[in-house]
Fold these 4 entries.
Entry 1:
Amino acid sequence: MVLSLRVMAPNRIVWNSEVGEIILSTNSGQIGILPNHAPLLTALDMGVSKIRSGGQWSAMASMGGFTMIDNNRVTILVNEAEVSDEIDLVEAQKDYEVAQMELAQAEGRKRKIEANLAFKRAKAGFYLLLDSNQ
């Protein structure tokens, strides 16, 4: 048995294939999805999701969204998503370090919220590359 996975961002289809297993970063922690999973609708957090297909693991950084699981079909709607081959390691590390510094220096409620979102986005992309290079 396999899962039919479709990941859609506003501007493109990020992933559309059959897979064996998915590990998602949800708002309440990570969740593993295998064939014959119970129907589920869950919110995604900014983070790295892992996808097993043909014995190989791939990773995808998602910037929040929703997942619907029903009858071995997994539909993921994301605000943004990146797979590891779309990200430059040097640039991702620089973005992560800058976002970390800006978060530490942020003052005021609005600026702290904006800095935290930028940090989560940069962290997801950077961790995606670190995970895929191991």
Note: The chain has a mean pLDDT of 88.
Entry 2:
Amino acid sequence: ARQLALKNLDGLAGYVSRGIPVLGIEPSAILSFRDEYKRFNLGEERTEQLAANSFLIEEFLANEAAAGRIDAKSFTTEKREIKIHNHCHQKALSDQKVTFDILNLPVNYKVSIINAGCCGMAGSFGYEKEHYEVSMKAGELRLFPAVRAAGDALIAANGTSCRHQIKDGTGVVALHPVTILKQALVLN
């Protein structure tokens, strides 16, 4: 892990030093730059620079919207209900509200955050045969019942493992929030 962190720091240094943001769609990957990398003692200045310039795509888009560079005029006015399940790394190291905010850019979208803990996948834990049953039981605590009760609402989940778990546990295909926004774009 330390060697991969060094490789990433070296590979991204040229962008970070020029103030180019590093964006990611997978919370566990991009947020490791803010949290885990600091523990490897790879040079405080480099890791702090990378941490300060690393963003979930949702954070970046929310900042762009707050600055007025993205607005509702770019999106459909169709009505749609969306329920969000955020990845555990986002819940711990970022802000769930950024996903809520960007999915509210289309004016007639009704967006809510599902009140659930971990989907049960816990990274690769749920993929392992010996943990599958425990993983599914964790999903059944709150998330799966909420997804099943969502009716025609779209389910948004930014974690790959979360989307996989939701599909396995409920049969529902959850979409990444950026996929939902892309579908909502109106090109003039």
Note: The radius of gyration is 18 Å.
Entry 3:
Amino acid sequence: MIKFSATLLATLIAASVNAATVDLRIMETTDLHSNMMDFDYYKDAATEKFGLVRTATLIEQARAEAKNSVLVDNGDVIQGSPLGDYMAAKGLKEGDVHPVYKAMNTLNYAVGNLGNHEFNYGLDFLHKALAGAKFPYVNANIIDAKTGKPMFTPYLIQDTRVVDSDGQPHTLRIGYIGFVPPQIMTWDKANLSGKVTVNDITETARKYIPEMRAKGAD
């Protein structure tokens, strides 16, 4: 995974015969590593280097600058700080919401992708944690060893209302798909061996991308 950043990507999409365009701002968080606050627990001191509480301000500023935007997360959320370790040791009961999702649920994420560190605490804890997210997750290349089918939703196509440069409304059908590196089978062998297999990323993309387009993804 890359170092955490709020990445802004701009894409221009032809929207009508009069050459009006739709500008869509795609915002991404990644490698939050359960750092919700701007506080370094290892140093017992405030920090300006990380913390979703700081990034949330940037997200709101970026949204205010664009007519159309979506926010996604690229994984490595539940592990990486004393908060993550504490919650894994404490465990989650049915109905509990992991603190990272209590925070992320306030920011209107469109979708999340799983990162390799999501598996550090085992599949049972991961499923319980994901149940607290008020936004969907996708992953296309993790296969349930018992069923031979994807363990998670491979992809989603979301209808998103946007406005073009002339102020006219449109609906974009945005396709989201996620992958994890197959190396998780080595990195988290104790948690995953015999429970899942992980398919090659490129081969999986070649399988699902045409399917997404056939179903109308823009």
Note: Confidence is low (pLDDT under 50) at residues 1-17.
Entry 4:
Amino acid sequence: YPLLGILIKLESKVPVFFKQGRPGIDENEFICYKFRSMKMNKTTEKEASKDDPRVTAIGKFMRKTSIDELPQFVNVLLGDMSVVGPRPHLWSQNKEYGKKLKKYIIRHSVKPGITGLAQVSGFRGEITTERDMVNRIKFDVFYIENWSLILDLKIISQTVINIFKGDKKAY
């Protein structure tokens, strides 16, 4: 943590941590913590995209290795998140897809997770089409309806494999 903090500060002179309100269980807002990987800007309701100019050099490395997500373990300790579960979306996505997709709201019946079935199944990162979101939600709902300790352990182990393998959608 200290080394990352120094590198972030040296590169962009901004706060080390990025904090953003996200919808959690029962759609109650919580503050989601991440290491800052982007330049400060007013557009916090837009996901990073491939070759996004807002992402810093150290940010690219952190995102590729998922190190930027480590502060979310604080969210787990605070009881706002769990290690495995549906990823917490932006409020703008929550509103948009909550209206469009029938089972979207089900994802708020559990705590959001640092990693999830959708993420290890190829639906990590930026959503560019409604079809991608439909598929992400299908995996989220499947996870909720079929939860087991074994499933959590499989997701965690696949997450670790993906970190070392390098996820092409990690940007």
Note: The longest strand covers residues 17-23.
